[in-house]
Design a protein that fits this description.
By secondary structure, this protein is mainly alpha-helical. Helix content is 35%, strand content 5%. A hairpin with a 4-residue loop joins β3 and β4. α1 packs parallel to α3, α7 crosses α9 and α8 packs across α9. GO terms for molecular function: glutathione transferase activity.
Length: 350
């Protein structure tokens, strides 16, 4: 299906990083505005900061954060690959009625992520009627000086942020809310099984650095040297994944795991925006037989397609990142059919 997108207004570029919104002034006037330039190393390479809030929810509450129905609220952007992970695992585990969520505006302005009810699938903040995500960070910690990122998981009982680290949110959603899953099958689904943890962790490490973050390192590079290094490593690792997927249906064998979810949210955005917008144009995912079929395989996993919003993805990147796209013109994009047969379910089991 051909996606035709409505034009969007141009915005002044202050924060351009999807998962690095980073306006750190808030209640402290002495804090500096953070821009993409401040996240660039001496050789022009893009640097990503670590998440700050790192609490953990447990089924028994031993961590101080107990898994409970309607205690937690998830804030996401449908454009963000890191937030997208959390929506997929939430869906696959059948805990949608347990953890409600709010979608921010796809357009990131000079104050970072904001709430709106003027755009499809976006909604106001239901908890505090905040205008910006950063207000919630300061509510959790008035002296906060970090990034104002999504996804972010809020604890309504303690009025604080549990975590803003997507890799940990999906682990908690996978294992700590099993008492609340909608079906027995969803309760039994384990996307991070004990016998595969070492393998999943190992593949996650290089896929995160070279692919998930690699597209950003390519797109936000501020020197030819930094770009060449990042994009070369990106496609070397895509070649590596292509080889793995020629032998097994999923990254860790015959079973869908968190590693696949983490890779998928980058792959689904690759041909749509990363090829052009981030200059990752050596090859398209469509040019890799196994990667392209694998992307369709995961997309067609029941529930996953519902979490994908091509309009939010295309508009966010191209309208918000005006340091890359100064006139905020949203390209028409390729005609991608993720519902084509993939036949990966017919692969011989390892």
């Amino acid at each position: 299906m051909l996606i035709r997108l409505k034009p969007v207004r141009q915005v002044r570029q202050i924060c351009v990083l999807l998962n690095q919104p980073g306006i750190s002034q808030g209640r402290n006037p002495h804090l500096k505005m953070s821009t993409v330039i401040s996240d660039i190393g001496a050789k022009g390479e893009f640097l990503r900061k670590d998440a700050v809030f790192r609490n953990w929810i447990t089924a028994d509450g031993s961590s101080g954060f107990k898994a409970e129905r309607d205690r937690y609220h998830l804030y996401v952007s449908l454009a963000c690959p890191w937030a997208h992970r959390t929506l997929i695992v939430r869906k696959l585990k059948g805990i949608e009625d347990v953890i409600p969520y709010t979608v921010v505006d796809w357009l990131m302005g000079e104050n970072g992520w904001n709430f709106t009810d003027k755009k499809a699938k976006c909604s106001p903040d239901p908890l505090f009627n905040a205008q910006y995500v950063r207000e919630l960070y300061f509510k959790a910690n008035p002296d906060y000086e970090g990034r104002f990122t999504v996804p972010m998981l809020w604890d309504k009982k303690n009025n604080t942020i549990v975590t803003n680290e997507s890799s940990e949110i999906i682990q908690m959603f996978n294992s700590e809310f099993n008492d609340f899953c909608a079906t027995v099958e969803q309760k039994e689904l384990d996307l991070y099984p004990e016998h595969l943890k070492a393998q999943v962790d190992a593949v996650n490490e290089w896929i995160y650095n070279d692919i998930n973050n690699g597209v950003y390192k390519s797109g936000f590079a501020r020197s030819q040297e930094a770009y060449d290094k990042a994009v070369t490593q990106l496609f070397a690792s895509l070649d590596r994944v292509e080889d793995i997927l020629s032998k097994t249906r999923y990254l860790a064998g015959d079973q869908l795991t968190l590693a696949d979810i983490r890779l998928f949210t980058t792959l689904i955005r690759f041909d749509l925006v990363y090829v052009g917008h981030f200059k990752c144009n050596k090859k398209r995912i469509m040019d890799y037989p196994n990667l392209w079929a694998y992307t369709r395989d995961i997309y067609q996993t029941p529930g996953v397609a519902e979490t994908v919003d091509r309009e939010h993805i295309a508009k966010h990147y191209q309208a918000s990142h005006t340091s890359i796209n100064p006139f905020a013109i949203v390209a028409i994009g390729p005609d991608l059919d993720f519902n084509l047969p993939h036949n990966r379910d017919k692969m011989a089991k390892a």
